[in-house]
Amino acid sequence: MATCIDTCRTGTTQDDDSRFCCIKNFFRPGFSVNRKIHHTQIEEDDDVWIKILEEAKSDVEQEPILSNYYYASITSHRSLDSALAHILSVKLSNLNLPSNTLFELFISVLEESPEIIEATKQDLIAVKERDPACISYVHCFLGFKGFLACQAHRIAHNLWKQNRKIVALLIQNRVSESFAVDIHPGAKIGKGILLDHATGVVIGETAVVGDNVSILHGVTLGGTGKQSGDRHPKIGDGVLIGAGTCILGNIIIGEGAKIGSGSVVVKDVPPRTTAVGNPARLIGGKENPRKHEKIPCLTMDQTSYLTEWSDYVI
């Protein structure tokens, strides 16, 4: 696999290849040279990828048993897009859908659409900053299925826009089977996304999710069953959606809103307000809902509204 990965990329100069081989050999299992990585050895503007390589080196020093896995998954790759194409192709392959076939598909999309990798970097940063369980970028990159499902969706959405709907739907199916996350390739998703735990997340075809949104497990952005065409929710920037929430229909969740866990939302939610319950109610009432100052997707605060909810008892 490593040989295929090393040679399948095109458009590099001899200097690029020499520089890459130097880095690759540094991380190759059994290659021990006591020196540090210098940022000039790789793309200087790619801080997230640099950090991933540094973390990989540290992890292998602590757990040498992982050296082959880290080499195949991260350190044999010359860029983040190649490593991402590899990890997704391995995770989503099966007996009838080989990983090299998926790798060639994924890398072609990523190389033609650099905006996907920019969104990937923002997603990595979002997970690392908002999820206290995430110990490193490498931890997220290799093991967080919400992050991986989101990146696979970005590729599928790109193919969907090119009218390559059959292969886009195939990716959706494999993501659903592998990660228990079902995102229709037609859905539009912004950057800086956290799908925390992610199991059971369902996002429909005409849904739109803005930037810097945090969504917990078991969330459905679905239709009501009574509409066709544009029938799914529109989620504004900075929104936090708690676990087990259903948001149904072509409604708007305003910028910076917070939806409490287990809620069923069927009407618009104003910006910077909190909705909770089944059916969902606005904290503070419909006429004068209480507004919060902090951005909920960043604070990840899912319980403060309870102190304002007069009928909350335990």
Automatic annotation (TrEMBL):
Q: Which GO terms describe its biological process?
A: cysteine biosynthetic process from serine
Query: Keywords assigned by UniProt?
Result: Acyltransferase, Amino-acid biosynthesis, Transferase
- E.C. designation(s): 2.3.1.30
Decide whether keyword NAD is in the record: no
Q: Which GO terms describe its cellular component?
A: cytoplasm
Give the pathway annotation.
Amino-acid biosynthesis; L-cysteine biosynthesis; L-cysteine from L-serine: step 1/2
Pfam families reported in the protein's UniProt record = Hexapep, SATase_N
Q: Which residues form the signal peptide?
A: none
Q: Which SMART domains match?
A: SATase_N
Residues of the Serine acetyltransferase N-terminal domain: 48-152
NCBIfam families attached here?
cysE (TIGR01172), EPS_EpsC (NF041874)
Concerning its family, UniProt says: Belongs to the transferase hexapeptide repeat family.
- In Swiss-Prot or TrEMBL terms, this protein is called serine O-acetyltransferase
Origin organism of this chain? Arabidopsis thaliana x Arabidopsis arenosa
